[in-house]
TrEMBL record:
Keywords: Endonuclease, Hydrolase, Nuclease. GO terms for molecular function: endonuclease activity. Residues 31-185 form the Putative restriction endonuclease domain. It holds the Pfam family Uma2. It comes from Caldilineaceae bacterium SB0661_bin_32. This is Uma2 family endonuclease.
Amino acid sequence: MAYPMTKPEDATELTWEIAQLFPAQGHWSEEEYLSLDTNHLIEFSHGQMEVLPMPTQSHQLLVIALFELLRNFVLEGKLGTVLLAPMRVQLWPGKFREPDILFMRTEHDDRRSDKFWEGADLVMEVVSPHDAERDKVTKRREYAQAGIPEYWIVEPVDSSISVLTLHGSEYTLHGKFVSGEIATSVLLDRFTVDVAAVFSEVG
């Protein structure tokens, strides 16, 4: 049996026809965003779709190492739920992010659903080499505005972990921890991370 072939010159036209089925940038609704069924990391900002770059192997290894440490700690103390991306977090109406790692206390279970969480109690981001400002500046401002009590910024460039804690409407630096030091949490008493050990996962 002969199967129909799509010629290269047809592919562009077909792709454009598919694209026309979706709303234009700036005109997406929350409902349309939440109905997307895709394995891509896509964040949502007031009608705009933001497709994130594909994570690298080193990025994923760091995320997994931190996720396992946090999840084991949380499970042992029965403190709540820990997930890793992709999982949507609504910061406020019209704004969704997908943190690399996210934690919600048990007492805030009513803010969790299958499709998305309403905020979080702690989030972690491994800084992307493609857009460091996004994690260090933009998301720092947004997570603070959303009232997320603690934000960990994991920086592969200098193998550091910055732990930010919320004071009022802004984050203050609890500590920037480097190789040879132990990163500590303010929110989770006794939760610690050996910085050198985590970054050795990508060595």
